[in-house]
Amino acid sequence: MWMFPLLAISACGSFSLQDELALIAGDGVVTQEEYDGIKASILKDDKFAALSKDTALIAYMKKYYAIKNINVVLPVGSVEKKRLFDVNVYFENSFSMDGYIGQADLKSSVYDLLVNTKQFSREVKLNYINNKVIAVPSTDIGTFSQMLTRKSFKAKGGKRGTSDIAAVIREVLRRTDAGNASVLISDFVFSPGAKTNAVSYLEMQQVAIKDAVIDQLGKQDLSIAIFQLRADFTGTYFDYKSRQVALHQVTRPYYIWFMGTAEQVSLALKNHIVSEENGHLIQNAVFFKTGAPGVPRYKVVNKGRIGDFKFENSDHISAAKTANGDFAFNIAVDFSSNLKGLDYFSDKDIYGLSNIAYSISVRKLSSAELHSASFSGYTHLITLRTKKLQTDQLVISAMDKVPQWVNACSSLDDSAIGTDITEQVRTFGLSHLLGGVYQAFGQGVNDRKIIEIKIKIDK
Amino acid sequence: MTDFIAMIYEWFGYQTDLGTHLRGWDITCDAFSGSNLYLEVFLIMIAISLGLFMLMYLIIDRFTAKFSSKLSWWITALVGVAMNFGIAFSLPKTVDRCDQLIFGSGDLMLFGTANAFWGLICFILLTSFSFPRSLSTNARLTTFWKP
């Protein structure tokens, strides 16, 4: 008899989050009052500690309603940031760009870029840049894109014969601040000149670029997104010895840099400032100052495990057992909010592990997986495997590195570009160019960890 | 509490995934924020044992002295075994599960067996000591081995 009150108390005290969520969604709207009621119940129970923040609870509710196919209006939504900054676009119009502007590819991509930029900025201001900045009085982006011609470049003036890339970058950065983000469009091909040692020149430029970025980092919160695009090229290419090489209807890379605060760069990326649909975008790289490593949303998943384990929590497994001496488990991670982009995190070489007995592999989740209940809201699947299972706190770190494509697309000798097809898709000195940027963002940082994931494993 | 219940039930050897489901790994596969089925099943098992005790020792006992034999005890206990098995076998299937957890009817049979076993033990303990058995008039001496 004495146990009845105990049972009654236990029964009355139990709170089923999912039952409550189903109940309040009955009328298709979750009111603020209903939301507050759910949150108050959650805060009373340690079991729901992970959902104590509004963002986590809203994310959970969205996921739950999506899985259950319940259409419901939630009280808290994302509030779009006001457009509080201008974007200054600088088109580098040295002679080396003439080969692009006679073709439609670059013009359409620039036009598209400007249209996209207009969507999230207060005003788009247009400029040419060579040895000086030449402002375009009109803000008509359509006309600007059409007027990318040799004739108009010549009419606008400035020295178009040589391009000191480090000086161009410094000048654009000098004009960048919290209220003015910058876009720089160029082929970024260094011009050492016939009598200069090319490698020495590149190294000097790398240091000069690093210096320019460090100076700007001292003035503002700065991040840089670099997009590599392809475009048809017909015209004269100037190789590293300033020899003229005629190229006819080849595809050449060029670059769009977006420079601004981390928030502005994030906004540019979210708004797909460079569209992927038209097929001109090849790769991108994002650089930002790394502080304490970020912690993405992640969880251990059951799928693909070798051996057995119990869940203690989404980041803690216990009773881990091997199968024929082998043990493996997967972690689903959401990298969508990181500026580096999803492709960056698909490279297993950026990861470090606290226990070298584990091997790591990583892949993006498939389209089918992204639509499944257990993987929706996550982007990647990291697989960890070992033959030496032990009780451990496994730390998986993602490091800030120059993406692999940079070295693959970089050249130190472009003299055979007229005949060598592989050279035509490379950029002379690209690794030095981005190396300077990378070094600048790492200055004064001991540890370039950008992400840290911890998994507790108990045997 | 849940860990203790999980431990004594998992001796019966069903899949780890069923245990994860029973501890409340929810439909989103993100956290143990679903129903704690271990606790629910355990409390229902206790309630059934208490209910059957009251039915046999207090309610039926008021109307007849005939239902106080060892056979009566075993009939009541087997009703409890059947109920506890049925609840443990069927309840986990009624709760939405994480789509990555794999368990089948065999695992649910083992969980049902575990619940039936612990229900029987509970009923034995409840009727083995003089209290609360002494509240009964005719069955106050009836246990699973006597009279």
Helices and strands in order:
The complex is a heterodimer of chains A (459) and B (147).
Chain A: H1 3-13, H2 17-24, H3 32-43, H4 54-67, E1 86-92, H5 98-101, H6 104-118, E2 124-129, E3 133-135, H7 141-146, H8 150-156, H9 165-174, E4 180-186, H10 198-217, E5 223-238, E6 244-260, H11 262-270, E7 281-288, E8 297-306, E9 308-313, E10 316-321, E11 327-334, E12 351-353, E13 358-364, H12 367-370, E14 380-386, E15 392-399, H13 404-408, E16 410-411, H14 421-424, E17 427-428, H15 430-442, E18 449-457
Helix pairs in contact in A: 9-10, 10-15
Chain B: H1 2-10, H2 16-22, H3 37-63, H4 70-94, H5 105-128, H6 130-133
Helix pairs in contact in B: 3-4, 3-5, 4-5
Describe the fold and architecture:
The complex is a heterodimer of chains A (459) and B (147). Helices cover 31% and strands 29% of the residues of chain A. Chain A is of the alpha+beta class and 459 residues long. In chain A, α9 packs parallel to α10. The longest helix of chain A is centred in the middle third of the chain and has 20 residues. The radius of gyration of chain B is 17 Å and the shape is elongated. The longest helix of chain B is centred in the middle third of the chain and has 27 residues. The mean pLDDT of chain B is 90. Chain B contains six helices and no strands. Helix content of chain B is 65%, strand content 0%. Chain B has one domain. The interface between A and B is medium-sized, with 33 and 32 residues.
